[in-house]
Design brief:
By secondary structure, the chain is mostly helical. Helices cover 82% and strands 0% of the residues. Helix 3 (48-73) packs antiparallel against helix 13, helix 5 runs antiparallel to helix 13 (345-357) and helix 11 packs antiparallel against helix 12 (311-339). The protein is globular.
């Protein structure tokens, strides 16, 4: 057991990773609290369908800067890009908190500030995706990804619970202010980190650098097939959840914001368990097959959440779904960091995000548009089951079995 703990937490031996890990843990908890509060605030202000529009605009902002962020992060300091993004998001979320506290919050302002958040996210994610290998040795990358996953998924456990408690006591503005402060903490810790040098991109211009990343991805089947598949999967099964979960909680189960936060927190319990399981096992063979089997099971668990007749059963499916997400995401991120050349990593990460989330705005808009045409559970389950079939089809491909 002691050996397992050493294996999982090996990356904490590195000072700069500890700083990165601490900053992201705090920021991610703030983000999870923010999203929970934003969802319920928008729902109570204008209804669940309009929350889909907010998420659509935030996702569009992210996509607008994502590829540029990837190209820049392979050319200039990834650490500096993350700091700039943190400061920009502090301004956007701080403004949202101030307006909400003043009592003048309206739907238009929510949309504008959510879009600004998305623009900052698009610069941050590619830089962060290329940052981890610069603060640990290669052998510690699986451990680092496991720990980052624990921070990410623990935020889904802690953040919604914090949001539910604070929202009920003092209102949404306080939750927004806490998230704004978390960005400043993250930026401050990033300033203290020292990263290894990485071979810079050729400097042939942003568009050419993006093009070279596209050509690399197009030549690797496990990359381009997975990215293309997830563009459809996230549109079909993730977007409807984002829009319709508050409605499912209220109409199907007859509960309120506390149950909304609980269900999301239980997802966090599962993801933490799945990520820790990856950190312990650290699979090195057949990782392509492993990840696709787990994604298929995740889709079935989503359908279980949506169709459960009892809330306690939905909670059980949420934990199972979380385990699948935590394990599979850690496998995927480790494969990227170990198999993609370092000087292309941020561009590949940006293409992964851009391709995978490229149809999310469409999915969010469609989910908002059809939210009144059928029961929320029916809409969510239908998308999840179609996604499960697609994962099963890819599992029959010979090239996937060759990916270690």
């Amino acid at each position: 057991m002691a050996l397992g703990r050493v294996r999982i937490f090996h990356a904490l031996r590195y000072r700069d990773f500890r700083l990165l890990f601490a900053g992201q843990t705090i920021s991610l908890i703030g983000d999870a609290a923010f999203l929970t509060a934003l969802g319920w605030r928008t729902f109570t202000l204008v209804g669940s369908g309009r929350f889909g529009i907010v998420l659509f605009c935030q996702a569009t902002g992210l996509l607008a800067t994502l590829l540029i962020g990837g190209a820049l992060a392979d050319r200039i300091s990834r650490r500096k890009m993350m700091i700039v993004s943190d400061v920009a998001r502090f301004v956007a979320v701080g403004a949202l908190a101030g307006v909400d506290a003043s009592g003048h919050l309206n739907f238009t302002l929510i949309v504008v500030l959510a879009t600004l958040m998305g623009l900052g996210d698009g610069l941050f994610y590619p830089a962060f995706g290329g940052m981890v290998p610069l603060v640990v040795e290669p052998g510690a990358i699986p451990s680092a990804n496991s720990l980052i996953g624990v921070a990410r998924w623990s935020s889904l456990l802690v953040g919604p619970a914090v949001a539910a408690g604070i929202y009920g006591a003092t209102g949404s503005a306080t939750v927004f202010a806490i998230d704004a402060g978390s960005f400043l903490v993250s930026a401050s810790l990033l300033r203290l980190t020292r990263t290894r040098a990485v071979e810079a991109a050729s400097g042939g211009g942003t568009l050419r650098e993006i093009g070279s990343g596209v050509r690399y991805v197009a030549g690797v089947p496990w990359l381009w097939v997975t990215i293309a598949l997830f563009s459809v999967v996230l549109m079909l099964q993730f977007a409807p959840q984002q829009v319709l979960l508050p409605k499912l909680i209220q109409q199907h189960f007859g509960h309120g914001v506390g149950a909304y936060g609980l269900l999301t927190s239980l997802l966090g319990v599962g993801t933490v368990a799945g990520t820790l399981a990856f950190g312990q096992l650290q699979p090195r063979r057949r990782r392509g097959v492993i990840s696709y089997v787990i994604w298929l099971l995740n889709s079935l668990a989503i359908a279980g959440v949506a169709l459960s007749p009892w809330f306690w059963m939905a909670c059980g499916f949420a934990v199972a779904r979380g385990f699948c997400i935590g394990f599979a995401v850690a496998v995927w991120e480790t494969m990227l960091m170990e198999l993609v050349p370092s000087h292309l990593l941020s561009r590949v990460v940006s293409l992964d995000f851009f391709g995978s989330f490229g149809l999310m705005p469409v999915g969010l808009a469609v989910a908002a548009g059809i939210s009144g045409l059928a029961a929320p559970g029916t809409i969510i389950a239908a998308g999840a089951l179609v996604s499960a079939v697609m994962f099963a089809v890819v599992l029959t491909r010979p090239w996937l079995r060759a990916v270690d």
